[in-house]
């Protein structure tokens, strides 16, 4: 099973848990396979990317994805969501209102970063909004495996959601709270003064031995997350 996933461009992280680094923007998409449900973590930057992800996951598992967790509201992580029609969508509290309010900003941001104008417009016009909002923590039963969604922000944005997959090893999908391929990006919607505390919550969630999956770049360990937390604290003048 692992070989099939790897041949399709996926990295196997733990039994039933994989991730893929997408082309163009190197954003991570994750998948967690349970007996009854399949959770996808983020959906890529375009409808085409989302459709390719959905068909690939369906082919590899023999089942369609049923649930989506959006780690934060940036174009490269959410614009493929409409390709997952019928899935239950989860996000941090307030994400639904923000996506509705900032649709034009989202479209322009995608275009500015290189998404074709028509493709960006189509994706935003058909954007899937969260059905379930997470304040604190929410457990999802995927059938034989429970996944924890945790609202650990604000930090990179005001709506940062992490996904903890218990097991050996534990896997934590961090969204862009953690980036390995470069310095974490603090755009106009970042809340720098709270970012280090968000990483403290992330480390408490996963613990010392977890595998931490950044929004961009290679999988890292707790020491990397702690070092990035300290760098952000120094960069933004946050004490503690």
UniProtKB/TrEMBL annotation:
SUPFAM superfamilies found in the cross-reference section: Metallo-hydrolase/oxidoreductase (SSF56281)
Gene3D superfamilies recorded: Ribonuclease Z/Hydroxyacylglutathione hydrolase-like
Ranges in a coiled coil: none
Top-level taxon: Bacteria
UniProt xrefs under InterPro entries: Metallo-B-lactamas, NDM-1-like, RibonucZ/Hydroxyglut_hydro
Ranges where the Metallo-beta-lactamase domain occurs: 26-216
The protein's name in its UniProt record: MBL fold metallo-hydrolase
Organism of derivation: Streptomyces rugosispiralis
Classification of source organism: Bacteria, Bacillati, Actinomycetota, Actinomycetes, Kitasatosporales
């Amino acid at each position: 099973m692992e070989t099939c996933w790897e041949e399709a461009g996926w990295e196997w992280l733990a039994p039933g848990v994989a991730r893929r680094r997408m082309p163009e923007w190197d954003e991570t998409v994750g998948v967690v396979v349970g007996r009854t449900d399949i959770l996808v973590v983020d959906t890529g930057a375009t409808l085409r990317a989302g459709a390719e992800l959905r068909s690939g996951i369906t082919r590899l598992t023999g089942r369609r994805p049923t649930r989506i967790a959006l780690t934060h509201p940036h174009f490269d992580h959410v614009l493929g969501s409409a390709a997952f029609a019928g899935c239950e969508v989860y996000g941090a509290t307030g994400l639904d209102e923000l996506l509705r309010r900032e649709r034009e900003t989202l479209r322009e941001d995608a275009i500015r970063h290189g998404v074709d104008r028509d493709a960006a417009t189509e994706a935003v016009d058909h954007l899937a909004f969260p059905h379930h909002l997470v304040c604190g923590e929410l457990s999802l039963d995927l059938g034989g495996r429970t996944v924890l969604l945790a609202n650990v922000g604000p930090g990179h944005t005001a709506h940062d959601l992490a996904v903890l997959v218990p097991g050996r090893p534990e896997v934590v999908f961090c969204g862009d709270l953690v980036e390995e391929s470069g310095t974490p990006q603090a755009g106009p919607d970042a809340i720098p003064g709270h970012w280090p505390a968000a990483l403290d919550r992330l480390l408490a969630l996963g613990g010392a031995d977890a595998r931490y999956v950044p929004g961009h770049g290679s999988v890292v360990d707790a020491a990397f997350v702690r070092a990035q937390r300290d760098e952000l604290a120094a960069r933004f003048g946050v004490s503690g």
